Structures are given as structure tokens and as C-alpha cells.
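From the shared-data thread, chain only:
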Amino acid sequence: MSVRRLGIILQGSLSGGVEMSLDQETSVEELRVGRFVVIEGAKARFFSMLTDVNLSVASQKLIQNPPPDSDFIRAVLTGTSTFATARLQPVLMLNRQSRSSLDQDSLEPVKTIPAHFSAVYEAQGNDFALVFGQEDSQDKENFFFNIGRPPDMDTAVCINLERFLQRSNGIFGKSGTGKSFLTRVILSGIISQDLASTLIFDMHNEYGWQAVSEDRSQPTVKGLRQLFGSKVVVFTLDADSSAARGLPDAHELYIGYNQIEIEDLELIRSELALSEATLENAYIMKEKLGESWISKLIAMSGEEIDRFVLEHKGHPASIKTLQRRLSTMIQKTKYLRTRTPANYIDEIIRHIEAGRHIVLEFGRQNNLISYMLATNIITRRIHAEYVRRSELNLSDPDRFTAPRRLAIVIEEAHRFLSGPVARQTIFGVIAREMRKYFVTLIIVDQRPSGIDADVLSQIGTRITALLNDERDIEAVFTGVPGSNALRTVLSQLDPRQQALVLGYAVPMPVVVRTRAFDQAFYKAIATDPLDDTSVKREVRARQASRELFGTRG
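Structure, as C-alpha cells:
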């Protein structure tokens, strides 16, 4: 099959991109920003992205006096008096002497531009395979995973999951653009290739057993537990909700008052309406009452608080306010206990070390206070354990093995990573460590402008669906050189199932129509996980129970 030529290069610069004049057979209406094209220079091949299209005329008189509406006249004027051009941004180049060993190592960032009148061609499947890799690659150091296809072609676009896991990453897009579906696709790749464990804080109960589909042809889609069986372990903060949704074997999880640190309260201070003075009194209470200060404070009478202030200083009104706020929080947060019957966080760590993946469902406990409190407490303790094990491994690698690497998925990420908060929460620490202690983040958010700029600058790979707010678009490109051309590409994405991928896991920015999370995907990604006998037995038991008692699952 011959490769189709689109046009020739007329002019341009290394910083601003190059301009292509369209061949007469190429219609400007078929060109889409974000398209991947190849420029054949005299000494190198340039892999480029189409970033803009333009219409121009040879004479301004033609604009002042337009011709009659006629296909014949339009055809006569095209190429002589009217012109269509496109702006291309070369990103990678392949020197002709490197053609004998075609692989990603042969590619290098552009350091020059193609000569005048260099031909521009449509990218072919082998161009995508060269630049973005392919799933059946024999490369032992890189793991390529198909996340979708170009909008105008039927060929796979892969990301390098090995590089993806080396840094924290972001999945952005306004509500309804398919962020959760895209996140499930990527998590499926990580699980199927066994590259790391994952810990997913599932605020909306979308990752564990099943989720509501955006496709009317199928009411629900499978969750990770259905796809991967015993490789995925589901914990729940609301066992009744998990059981009602048909989840066969969720592990209940509770958090003790003594596991709540004051930094956890600082994270939700605005939701609890805690002033700075109230938090300062919390430090006094903890210092004097010890690890069980919250349970002791809640049990104190007003007179006991007044006596405490006389003996240990503090402000009685602030302490009483703190007592009321904590009592309200505990009453509304059903997974909090004075003491927990087991160390659930140690249990999670054991599953992670065994190579399993954790989904923590919030059920009906998915308000912001509940989500932020549990997520911060659990992540802080797991990170502390990872730091301990990493330092032991560094001091004596023969005796202590490195911990299994871990990717933590958080939704509503701007709540944890906003400017003032990011310096206090564990998530800001992890984002800046760049996998120093074998832990990275996958942050899923519709408001990237709410995330601290320093944190955004550390994000390795950004997968961004459509955004409308200018502040969010500006935030996505924080620390990205030459981002002006990409803004146009991002603003022209389809409202669903399309994303701009750029950063550490891909050699150059690319627009993809993301893989559908459907039966074809299930077949491609997973073995038959429900051959797991225990899961099958549990599913059958729950189905029989629903049929017998007429309950809804």
C-alpha cells in the first residue's frame, strides 16, 4: 500500500514549528489537530504533530469580493489564489544512517528542522510501532501497553508502563469524559503485566466488583476483582453497601481513634470548621493525654475540660469546640472505632508484598471528610513502612530486599494537593520523592488548577481528556516546554473517550481514542479469573440468596 502524501514544507522555525502547504488532493477539512505525521527530510525523518490549520489567499481583493458559490470556481481558485496550510510541530527525528537499527533508541529529540519543500506523509502503523512501541515487543526492559488508537487510524498506541511507574502521574478531564474508565484500562495493564502493586482509594465504588457503564449497550462493566480474581483484594469501609452491590468477599476495615494524627485533622480543617487556635489546642491535648487523646477528650465533661486548662494551659472554648467537632465527625464516620480489633493496615501491606492489588471501597461513607481522613491515614502509615523497609534495603541490600513497588490511586486529588495542603499531607511528599521509596501516585482529578504547581511539575505522565476551564488547561501544561501548540490540541478533543497523552511514558505527545472497557478488552487483558473456586462459590451463594429472599444486588 502506497503511503499518502499530504503536502510539502514551506517555512518555519525550530521553536515555532513548520508550515505545510497542502497538496491539491488533500482537503483541509480532513485534517485534525493532534494528528501524527511524518516529514521526510533530506538527512532525517521527522515525527511531528499537527497543531493548527490555516486558510490564506493570494490577494486581499478576493476576500473583499468573494466569488460566486460554485464548486467549479472553488476548484479553479484552490492552489492558485486560495491556499490551505497546516502548522506542524516536529518532536522526534531519525537520522537516515540509523535506519539499519529501527528501535526507540534510534530516535532523538529534534535539534533542527526539515529543509524547504520536504514532503509530509500520513503516519503508518509501523511509524506508531517505532515511536510508541508495541505490546508483543521482546524488549525485556520496557513493557508496552495498548491504551487506544489514533482518532483517524486503526492501529495501537502504547505507553511504556515501566517508565509510567517510575514517577507519579495524572489523569485529568472534566466530569463525564471517561477518566475512571481510562484509569481502569491503565490499572489493568499494570496488573496483567505484574509490574507493581496498586492501592486504589475508590471513592465512588467503581473499581472493585463492577461499575455503571457509559455505554447503553451494556448496563454495567466489570471491576478489577471480576477481571483478575484473587490478584485483587477488596477492603470496604461499608460492608452493607458492598454486600448489596454483590461483592462476594470484601474485607471489612476499621480505623481507631488512636490512628488519627493532628495532620489528618489539618487536612480536613475547613470541612470541620477548625480554626488555627483550635488545632493548637489539639497539640496540647495530645501532648498531655497521649495516644488515646481523642477518646479521652470526647469522654470529658465541661468541668473536666476546665480543670485540664487550669493544670496544663490551653483555651477552654477552643477545646470544647474541638470536642464537639470530633464528636460530630465520629458519629458520621461509621468506620471509626475507639479501638480496632486488628491491624488492618498491616494486613494491606502483607497483601501488597504478596503481589496483590488493593481496592478500598467507601460505600456510602464517600463524603469528603470520610474519604480524605481514611485516605490520608492509611497512606501515611503505608508510606512510613515503605520508608523503613527502603532504608533497611539501602543499608544492607543482601539481607533486606527492597519493598515491592506501589502505585496509589487517589480521586479528588486537588483536595490533598492544593497549595497550602500539599506541604502538609503525605501525598505532596510522595509526589516530590519520584519513587525514591518505591511509591508513586496516580492522581485522578477534574480540577488540575487546584493542585500545587510544584507537585504538577513533578508529574511524569499526563493523560488529559477534555477540559474547558482556562485555569485547568494552564495547570495541565505546568512545566511542559512548548505547550502553546498543545493547548489548541487539548481544546479540540472530543468530549468523551479521547485524551492527549504526554510525558515520561511516551516519546512524544499523542492524541488517542482510548480503549473501550468492554468484552473485547476483558478477553484481551485477563485469563478466566472466575476459575478461582472460592470466588465462584461465593458468587453462586449470593445469587441464590437474592433469588430466595428477593433482595436486590
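The first strand starts at residue 5 and ends at 13.
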